Amino acid sequence: MVEADSAHTLPLLETRRLECVRDDRLLFSDLSFTLAEGEILQIEGANGSGKTSLLRILCGLRLADAGQVLWRGEEVSAVREDYYTNMIYIGHLPCIKGDLTTLENIRALLDTRSQSAPLDEIEQALALVGLAGFDDVTSKALSSGQRRRILLAFLLLAKARLWILDEPLTALDVEGVALVETMLLEHRLAGGSAIFTTHHGMQLPCAMSTVTLGRAGKQSC
Amino acid sequence: MLKAFSHLLARDLRLAFRSRHELANPLIFFVLVVSLFPLAVAPSAELLQVMAPGVIWVSALLSVLLSLDRLFKQDYEDGSLDQLMLSPNPLVILVLAKVCAHWLLTGLPLVLVAPLLGMFLYVPDEAIGVLMLSLLLGTPVLSLVGAIGVSLTVAVNRGGVLLSLIVLPLYIPVLIFGANAVDVASDGLSVRGQLLFLGAVLALALSLAPLATAVALRITASR
Prior knowledge:
heterodimer, A: alpha/beta, 6-stranded mixed beta sheet, 7 helices, 10 strands, disordered N terminus, B: mainly alpha, 9 helices, about 0% strand
Protein backbone atom coordinates (compact mmCIF):
# COMPACT_ATOMS: atom_id res chain seq x y z
CA MET A 1 0.00 0.00 0.00
CA VAL A 2 2.74 2.35 1.05
CA GLU A 3 4.71 1.34 -2.04
CA ALA A 4 1.80 2.05 -4.33
CA ASP A 5 1.43 5.52 -2.77
CA SER A 6 5.04 6.38 -3.23
CA ALA A 7 4.87 5.21 -6.82
CA HIS A 8 2.12 7.73 -7.39
CA THR A 9 3.95 10.64 -5.90
CA LEU A 10 7.07 9.93 -7.95
CA PRO A 11 7.21 11.88 -11.17
CA LEU A 12 6.92 9.82 -14.32
CA LEU A 13 10.10 11.26 -15.74
CA GLU A 14 12.69 13.38 -14.10
CA THR A 15 15.91 14.92 -15.33
CA ARG A 16 18.68 15.95 -13.01
CA ARG A 17 21.29 18.49 -14.06
CA LEU A 18 21.45 17.35 -17.66
CA GLU A 19 24.21 18.70 -19.79
CA CYS A 20 24.74 18.36 -23.50
CA VAL A 21 27.81 19.34 -25.46
CA ARG A 22 27.89 19.09 -29.21
CA ASP A 23 30.97 19.78 -31.33
CA ASP A 24 32.62 21.56 -28.39
CA ARG A 25 29.57 23.80 -28.02
CA LEU A 26 27.59 23.74 -24.78
CA LEU A 27 23.94 23.36 -25.77
CA PHE A 28 22.48 23.29 -22.29
CA SER A 29 23.63 22.47 -18.82
CA ASP A 30 22.14 22.05 -15.37
CA LEU A 31 18.77 21.25 -16.90
CA SER A 32 16.44 19.74 -14.30
CA PHE A 33 12.71 19.26 -14.63
CA THR A 34 10.05 16.74 -13.77
CA LEU A 35 7.12 15.42 -15.72
CA ALA A 36 4.10 14.14 -13.82
CA GLU A 37 1.48 11.67 -15.04
CA GLY A 38 -1.00 13.52 -17.20
CA GLU A 39 1.34 16.40 -17.87
CA ILE A 40 2.13 17.82 -21.26
CA LEU A 41 5.43 19.53 -21.71
CA GLN A 42 6.65 21.58 -24.62
CA ILE A 43 10.36 22.05 -25.18
CA GLU A 44 10.99 25.45 -26.67
CA GLY A 45 14.10 26.97 -28.08
CA ALA A 46 15.62 28.44 -31.19
CA ASN A 47 17.02 26.32 -34.02
CA GLY A 48 20.16 24.60 -32.85
CA SER A 49 19.40 25.10 -29.17
CA GLY A 50 19.45 21.35 -28.57
CA LYS A 51 15.78 20.35 -28.57
CA THR A 52 16.30 17.22 -30.63
CA SER A 53 19.42 16.35 -28.65
CA LEU A 54 17.45 16.72 -25.43
CA LEU A 55 14.67 14.44 -26.67
CA ARG A 56 17.22 11.86 -27.80
CA ILE A 57 18.84 12.01 -24.39
CA LEU A 58 15.44 11.59 -22.72
CA CYS A 59 14.72 8.44 -24.65
CA GLY A 60 18.21 7.06 -24.14
CA LEU A 61 19.40 7.17 -27.73
CA ARG A 62 22.04 9.70 -26.85
CA LEU A 63 24.14 9.83 -23.73
CA ALA A 64 24.03 13.02 -21.70
CA ASP A 65 27.42 14.56 -21.06
CA ALA A 66 26.40 14.93 -17.44
CA GLY A 67 23.28 14.34 -15.36
CA GLN A 68 20.62 11.68 -15.13
CA VAL A 69 17.25 10.79 -16.60
CA LEU A 70 14.97 8.96 -14.17
CA TRP A 71 11.90 6.93 -15.06
CA ARG A 72 9.62 6.61 -12.02
CA GLY A 73 12.57 7.38 -9.78
CA GLU A 74 15.03 4.96 -11.33
CA GLU A 75 17.80 5.58 -13.80
CA VAL A 76 16.55 4.85 -17.31
CA SER A 77 19.41 2.53 -18.21
CA ALA A 78 18.51 0.32 -15.24
CA VAL A 79 14.84 -0.05 -16.19
CA ARG A 80 15.27 -0.08 -19.96
CA GLU A 81 12.68 -2.73 -20.73
CA ASP A 82 9.95 -1.15 -18.60
CA TYR A 83 10.78 2.31 -19.92
CA TYR A 84 10.78 1.28 -23.58
CA THR A 85 7.49 -0.57 -23.14
CA ASN A 86 5.82 2.56 -21.76
CA MET A 87 7.53 5.24 -23.80
CA ILE A 88 7.23 5.96 -27.48
CA TYR A 89 9.56 8.25 -29.39
CA ILE A 90 8.78 9.66 -32.78
CA GLY A 91 11.60 11.65 -34.27
CA HIS A 92 11.54 13.78 -37.36
CA LEU A 93 12.68 10.96 -39.61
CA PRO A 94 9.69 9.11 -41.06
CA CYS A 95 10.72 5.49 -40.16
CA ILE A 96 8.36 4.37 -42.91
CA LYS A 97 9.45 1.89 -45.57
CA GLY A 98 8.38 2.95 -49.05
CA ASP A 99 8.18 -0.65 -50.27
CA LEU A 100 5.77 -1.74 -47.54
CA THR A 101 2.06 -0.98 -47.44
CA THR A 102 0.53 1.21 -44.77
CA LEU A 103 -0.70 -1.83 -42.89
CA GLU A 104 2.67 -3.61 -43.10
CA ASN A 105 4.46 -0.49 -41.94
CA ILE A 106 2.23 -0.18 -38.89
CA ARG A 107 2.59 -3.87 -38.12
CA ALA A 108 6.39 -3.67 -38.48
CA LEU A 109 6.53 -0.67 -36.14
CA LEU A 110 4.33 -2.40 -33.58
CA ASP A 111 6.45 -5.56 -33.89
CA THR A 112 9.58 -3.70 -32.84
CA ARG A 113 7.68 -2.74 -29.68
CA SER A 114 6.58 -6.39 -29.25
CA GLN A 115 3.00 -5.27 -29.67
CA SER A 116 0.29 -6.33 -32.03
CA ALA A 117 -3.15 -5.04 -32.83
CA PRO A 118 -6.15 -6.70 -34.47
CA LEU A 119 -6.94 -5.59 -38.00
CA ASP A 120 -10.15 -3.75 -37.10
CA GLU A 121 -8.30 -1.73 -34.47
CA ILE A 122 -5.64 -0.74 -36.98
CA GLU A 123 -8.29 0.23 -39.51
CA GLN A 124 -10.07 2.28 -36.86
CA ALA A 125 -6.85 4.13 -36.08
CA LEU A 126 -6.18 4.69 -39.79
CA ALA A 127 -9.67 6.08 -40.25
CA LEU A 128 -9.11 8.41 -37.32
CA VAL A 129 -5.94 9.86 -38.83
CA GLY A 130 -7.61 10.21 -42.22
CA LEU A 131 -6.03 7.24 -43.97
CA ALA A 132 -9.12 5.08 -44.34
CA GLY A 133 -8.81 2.95 -47.45
CA PHE A 134 -5.04 3.43 -47.71
CA ASP A 135 -4.12 0.29 -45.79
CA ASP A 136 -2.87 -1.69 -48.78
CA VAL A 137 -1.20 1.19 -50.63
CA THR A 138 2.60 1.05 -50.69
CA SER A 139 3.94 3.97 -48.74
CA LYS A 140 6.11 5.39 -51.50
CA ALA A 141 2.85 6.34 -53.23
CA LEU A 142 1.84 8.46 -50.23
CA SER A 143 2.65 12.12 -49.63
CA SER A 144 4.96 13.07 -46.77
CA GLY A 145 1.99 14.36 -44.78
CA GLN A 146 0.25 11.03 -45.21
CA ARG A 147 3.38 9.23 -44.07
CA ARG A 148 3.38 11.35 -40.91
CA ARG A 149 -0.22 10.29 -40.42
CA ILE A 150 0.84 6.64 -40.48
CA LEU A 151 3.06 7.49 -37.54
CA LEU A 152 0.12 9.13 -35.77
CA ALA A 153 -1.86 5.91 -36.21
CA PHE A 154 1.12 4.00 -34.81
CA LEU A 155 1.21 6.43 -31.88
CA LEU A 156 -2.46 5.69 -31.14
CA LEU A 157 -2.06 1.94 -31.43
CA ALA A 158 1.07 1.73 -29.29
CA LYS A 159 -0.87 3.02 -26.25
CA ALA A 160 2.29 4.21 -24.51
CA ARG A 161 2.07 6.26 -21.30
CA LEU A 162 4.73 8.70 -22.35
CA TRP A 163 4.95 10.23 -25.80
CA ILE A 164 8.15 11.91 -26.86
CA LEU A 165 7.49 13.71 -30.11
CA ASP A 166 10.06 15.64 -32.12
CA GLU A 167 8.27 18.15 -34.35
CA PRO A 168 5.06 16.13 -34.68
CA LEU A 169 3.46 18.79 -36.87
CA THR A 170 6.02 18.60 -39.69
CA ALA A 171 4.38 18.20 -43.12
CA LEU A 172 0.86 18.14 -41.63
CA ASP A 173 -1.96 20.31 -42.98
CA VAL A 174 -4.30 22.39 -40.80
CA GLU A 175 -6.56 19.43 -40.13
CA GLY A 176 -3.54 17.33 -39.26
CA VAL A 177 -2.40 19.90 -36.72
CA ALA A 178 -5.86 19.90 -35.14
CA LEU A 179 -5.72 16.12 -35.07
CA VAL A 180 -2.43 16.11 -33.16
CA GLU A 181 -3.89 18.63 -30.69
CA THR A 182 -6.93 16.43 -30.08
CA MET A 183 -4.75 13.37 -29.74
CA LEU A 184 -2.58 15.10 -27.14
CA LEU A 185 -5.62 16.24 -25.17
CA GLU A 186 -7.23 12.82 -25.20
CA HIS A 187 -3.94 11.23 -24.24
CA ARG A 188 -3.74 13.62 -21.29
CA LEU A 189 -7.32 12.89 -20.25
CA ALA A 190 -6.45 9.20 -20.22
CA GLY A 191 -3.64 9.98 -17.80
CA GLY A 192 -0.83 9.93 -20.32
CA SER A 193 2.07 12.35 -20.53
CA ALA A 194 3.83 13.88 -23.46
CA ILE A 195 6.94 15.87 -24.26
CA PHE A 196 7.16 17.54 -27.62
CA THR A 197 8.89 20.21 -29.63
CA THR A 198 7.34 22.32 -32.33
CA HIS A 199 7.83 25.54 -34.19
CA HIS A 200 4.18 25.73 -35.15
CA GLY A 201 1.61 27.31 -32.86
CA MET A 202 -0.12 24.62 -30.85
CA GLN A 203 -3.62 25.55 -29.63
CA LEU A 204 -3.75 23.57 -26.44
CA PRO A 205 -5.77 24.81 -23.48
CA CYS A 206 -3.65 26.16 -20.68
CA ALA A 207 -2.72 22.84 -19.14
CA MET A 208 0.73 22.78 -20.64
CA SER A 209 4.17 23.41 -19.23
CA THR A 210 7.16 24.58 -21.17
CA VAL A 211 10.88 24.25 -20.81
CA THR A 212 12.82 26.78 -22.78
CA LEU A 213 16.34 25.82 -23.71
CA GLY A 214 18.77 28.62 -23.22
CA ARG A 215 16.74 29.72 -20.19
CA ALA A 216 16.66 27.96 -16.82
CA GLY A 217 13.74 26.17 -15.26
CA LYS A 218 10.22 25.16 -16.17
CA GLN A 219 7.30 27.53 -16.56
CA SER A 220 3.64 26.64 -16.29
CA CYS A 221 1.24 28.77 -18.27
CA MET B 1 12.09 -12.50 -27.97
CA LEU B 2 11.93 -15.22 -30.60
CA LYS B 3 8.93 -13.39 -32.03
CA ALA B 4 10.86 -10.15 -32.29
CA PHE B 5 13.58 -12.05 -34.13
CA SER B 6 11.25 -13.73 -36.60
CA HIS B 7 9.17 -10.60 -37.22
CA LEU B 8 12.21 -8.51 -38.07
CA LEU B 9 13.63 -11.29 -40.23
CA ALA B 10 10.33 -11.55 -42.09
CA ARG B 11 10.17 -7.79 -42.55
CA ASP B 12 13.67 -7.63 -44.02
CA LEU B 13 13.04 -10.55 -46.36
CA ARG B 14 9.77 -9.02 -47.51
CA LEU B 15 11.46 -5.68 -48.14
CA ALA B 16 14.21 -7.37 -50.13
CA PHE B 17 11.76 -9.26 -52.31
CA ARG B 18 9.92 -6.01 -53.05
CA SER B 19 13.09 -4.59 -54.65
CA ARG B 20 14.34 -7.61 -56.56
CA HIS B 21 16.95 -5.90 -58.71
CA GLU B 22 18.95 -5.12 -55.59
CA LEU B 23 18.45 -8.65 -54.38
CA ALA B 24 20.13 -10.14 -57.46
CA ASN B 25 23.12 -7.76 -57.45
CA PRO B 26 25.56 -9.73 -55.25
CA LEU B 27 24.79 -12.96 -57.08
CA ILE B 28 25.23 -11.41 -60.53
CA PHE B 29 28.48 -9.82 -59.43
CA PHE B 30 29.73 -13.17 -58.16
CA VAL B 31 28.83 -15.05 -61.33
CA LEU B 32 30.23 -12.33 -63.63
CA VAL B 33 33.59 -12.03 -61.91
CA VAL B 34 34.15 -15.77 -61.75
CA SER B 35 33.09 -16.35 -65.36
CA LEU B 36 35.37 -13.56 -66.63
CA PHE B 37 38.50 -15.28 -65.36
CA PRO B 38 38.65 -18.10 -67.97
CA LEU B 39 38.26 -15.43 -70.66
CA ALA B 40 41.00 -13.19 -69.32
CA VAL B 41 43.52 -15.86 -68.33
CA ALA B 42 43.62 -18.98 -70.47
CA PRO B 43 40.90 -21.59 -70.70
CA SER B 44 43.30 -24.40 -69.84
CA ALA B 45 41.98 -26.93 -67.37
CA GLU B 46 45.17 -27.24 -65.29
CA LEU B 47 45.56 -23.50 -64.81
CA LEU B 48 41.92 -22.88 -63.95
CA GLN B 49 41.83 -25.79 -61.56
CA VAL B 50 44.72 -24.32 -59.61
CA MET B 51 43.16 -20.87 -59.53
CA ALA B 52 39.56 -21.92 -58.92
CA PRO B 53 39.43 -21.99 -55.09
CA GLY B 54 41.02 -18.59 -54.80
CA VAL B 55 38.98 -17.01 -57.58
CA ILE B 56 35.68 -18.30 -56.22
CA TRP B 57 36.48 -17.33 -52.66
CA VAL B 58 37.76 -13.84 -53.50
CA SER B 59 34.69 -13.17 -55.64
CA ALA B 60 32.37 -14.37 -52.89
CA LEU B 61 34.15 -12.17 -50.36
CA LEU B 62 33.96 -9.06 -52.54
CA SER B 63 30.36 -9.78 -53.40
CA VAL B 64 29.43 -9.88 -49.70
CA LEU B 65 31.53 -6.78 -49.02
CA LEU B 66 29.67 -4.82 -51.70
CA SER B 67 26.30 -5.83 -50.30
CA LEU B 68 27.12 -4.96 -46.68
CA ASP B 69 25.93 -1.40 -47.02
CA ARG B 70 22.38 -2.63 -47.36
CA LEU B 71 22.47 -4.10 -43.88
CA PHE B 72 21.78 -0.91 -41.93
CA LYS B 73 21.92 1.98 -44.39
CA GLN B 74 18.24 2.22 -45.20
CA ASP B 75 17.16 1.73 -41.60
CA TYR B 76 19.59 4.41 -40.54
CA GLU B 77 18.43 6.89 -43.14
CA ASP B 78 14.70 6.52 -42.53
CA GLY B 79 14.93 6.43 -38.73
CA SER B 80 13.85 2.80 -38.32
CA LEU B 81 17.15 2.11 -36.60
CA ASP B 82 16.12 4.46 -33.77
CA GLN B 83 12.90 2.50 -33.33
CA LEU B 84 14.86 -0.77 -33.22
CA MET B 85 17.06 0.66 -30.52
CA LEU B 86 14.02 1.76 -28.52
CA SER B 87 12.59 -1.73 -28.65
CA PRO B 88 12.04 -3.43 -25.30
CA ASN B 89 13.75 -6.46 -26.84
CA PRO B 90 17.52 -6.84 -26.56
CA LEU B 91 19.22 -5.10 -29.49
CA VAL B 92 21.50 -8.13 -29.92
CA ILE B 93 18.53 -10.29 -30.96
CA LEU B 94 17.39 -7.69 -33.48
CA VAL B 95 20.91 -7.35 -34.87
CA LEU B 96 21.08 -11.11 -35.25
CA ALA B 97 17.79 -11.08 -37.16
CA LYS B 98 19.09 -8.43 -39.55
CA VAL B 99 22.38 -10.26 -40.12
CA CYS B 100 20.48 -13.48 -40.62
CA ALA B 101 18.32 -11.85 -43.29
CA HIS B 102 21.42 -10.42 -44.94
CA TRP B 103 23.06 -13.85 -45.10
CA LEU B 104 19.92 -15.52 -46.46
CA LEU B 105 19.81 -12.89 -49.22
CA THR B 106 23.51 -12.75 -50.13
CA GLY B 107 25.53 -15.62 -48.63
CA LEU B 108 23.11 -18.45 -49.24
CA PRO B 109 22.62 -17.75 -52.99
CA LEU B 110 26.42 -17.74 -53.36
CA VAL B 111 26.64 -21.14 -51.67
CA LEU B 112 23.96 -22.52 -53.95
CA VAL B 113 25.44 -21.24 -57.20
CA ALA B 114 29.03 -22.14 -56.27
CA PRO B 115 28.91 -25.76 -57.59
CA LEU B 116 28.04 -24.49 -61.04
CA LEU B 117 30.92 -22.02 -61.03
CA GLY B 118 33.18 -24.73 -59.62
CA MET B 119 32.42 -26.86 -62.66
CA PHE B 120 33.19 -23.91 -64.98
CA LEU B 121 36.65 -23.79 -63.45
CA TYR B 122 37.30 -27.52 -63.51
CA VAL B 123 37.08 -28.05 -59.76
CA PRO B 124 37.11 -31.86 -59.36
CA ASP B 125 33.78 -33.42 -58.37
CA GLU B 126 35.02 -34.57 -55.00
CA ALA B 127 35.98 -30.99 -54.05
CA ILE B 128 32.63 -29.44 -55.01
CA GLY B 129 31.05 -30.56 -51.73
CA VAL B 130 33.92 -29.04 -49.78
CA LEU B 131 33.58 -25.83 -51.76
CA MET B 132 29.93 -25.54 -50.77
CA LEU B 133 30.64 -26.50 -47.18
CA SER B 134 33.46 -23.99 -46.85
CA LEU B 135 31.23 -21.23 -48.23
CA LEU B 136 28.37 -22.37 -46.00
CA LEU B 137 30.60 -21.98 -42.95
CA GLY B 138 32.46 -18.92 -44.19
CA THR B 139 29.85 -16.58 -45.64
CA PRO B 140 27.87 -16.21 -42.37
CA VAL B 141 31.13 -15.04 -40.78
CA LEU B 142 31.47 -12.45 -43.55
CA SER B 143 27.95 -11.14 -42.80
CA LEU B 144 28.45 -11.18 -39.03
CA VAL B 145 31.83 -9.45 -39.04
CA GLY B 146 30.69 -7.09 -41.78
CA ALA B 147 27.82 -5.96 -39.57
CA ILE B 148 30.29 -4.58 -37.03
CA GLY B 149 31.98 -2.54 -39.73
CA VAL B 150 28.71 -1.25 -41.19
CA SER B 151 27.35 -0.22 -37.83
CA LEU B 152 30.49 1.84 -37.24
CA THR B 153 30.47 3.51 -40.66
CA VAL B 154 26.77 3.87 -41.45
CA ALA B 155 26.73 7.48 -40.28
CA VAL B 156 29.80 8.39 -42.34
CA ASN B 157 29.18 9.82 -45.79
CA ARG B 158 30.81 7.64 -48.42
CA GLY B 159 32.09 5.30 -45.74
CA GLY B 160 32.74 2.54 -48.27
CA VAL B 161 36.53 2.74 -48.22
CA LEU B 162 36.57 2.98 -44.44
CA LEU B 163 34.30 -0.04 -44.25
CA SER B 164 36.65 -2.08 -46.44
CA LEU B 165 39.63 -1.04 -44.32
CA ILE B 166 37.90 -2.12 -41.12
CA VAL B 167 36.42 -5.33 -42.41
CA LEU B 168 38.95 -6.78 -44.90
CA PRO B 169 41.68 -7.65 -42.37
CA LEU B 170 39.08 -9.58 -40.39
CA TYR B 171 37.99 -11.42 -43.54
CA ILE B 172 41.49 -12.64 -44.39
CA PRO B 173 41.57 -15.75 -42.12
CA VAL B 174 38.24 -16.90 -43.52
CA LEU B 175 39.53 -16.37 -47.05
CA ILE B 176 42.76 -18.28 -46.43
CA PHE B 177 41.16 -21.28 -44.76
CA GLY B 178 38.15 -21.36 -47.08
CA ALA B 179 40.20 -21.33 -50.27
CA ASN B 180 42.77 -23.68 -48.80
CA ALA B 181 40.08 -26.22 -47.91
CA VAL B 182 38.93 -26.41 -51.53
CA ASP B 183 42.53 -26.55 -52.75
CA VAL B 184 43.44 -29.42 -50.44
CA ALA B 185 40.23 -31.27 -51.27
CA SER B 186 41.09 -31.05 -54.98
CA ASP B 187 44.27 -32.98 -54.19
CA GLY B 188 42.18 -35.62 -52.47
CA LEU B 189 43.48 -34.92 -48.95
CA SER B 190 41.55 -34.53 -45.70
CA VAL B 191 40.12 -31.06 -45.03
CA ARG B 192 38.95 -31.70 -41.51
CA GLY B 193 41.32 -29.14 -40.02
CA GLN B 194 40.30 -26.31 -42.33
CA LEU B 195 36.58 -26.97 -41.90
CA LEU B 196 36.91 -27.23 -38.13
CA PHE B 197 38.72 -23.91 -38.12
CA LEU B 198 35.98 -22.28 -40.21
CA GLY B 199 33.37 -23.76 -37.86
CA ALA B 200 35.19 -22.39 -34.84
CA VAL B 201 35.43 -18.95 -36.40
CA LEU B 202 31.72 -19.09 -37.18
CA ALA B 203 30.89 -20.01 -33.58
CA LEU B 204 33.07 -17.18 -32.34
CA ALA B 205 31.56 -14.65 -34.73
CA LEU B 206 28.03 -15.80 -33.99
CA SER B 207 28.48 -15.28 -30.28
CA LEU B 208 30.52 -12.07 -30.27
CA ALA B 209 29.79 -10.10 -33.45
CA PRO B 210 26.13 -9.29 -32.64
CA LEU B 211 27.21 -7.90 -29.25
CA ALA B 212 29.86 -5.73 -30.85
CA THR B 213 27.41 -4.61 -33.54
CA ALA B 214 24.79 -3.65 -30.95
CA VAL B 215 27.31 -1.54 -29.05
CA ALA B 216 28.56 0.06 -32.27
CA LEU B 217 25.00 0.93 -33.29
CA ARG B 218 24.40 2.63 -29.94
CA ILE B 219 27.55 4.66 -30.46
CA THR B 220 26.39 5.60 -33.95
CA ALA B 221 22.97 6.65 -32.66
CA SER B 222 24.43 8.88 -29.97
CA ARG B 223 26.12 11.03 -32.59
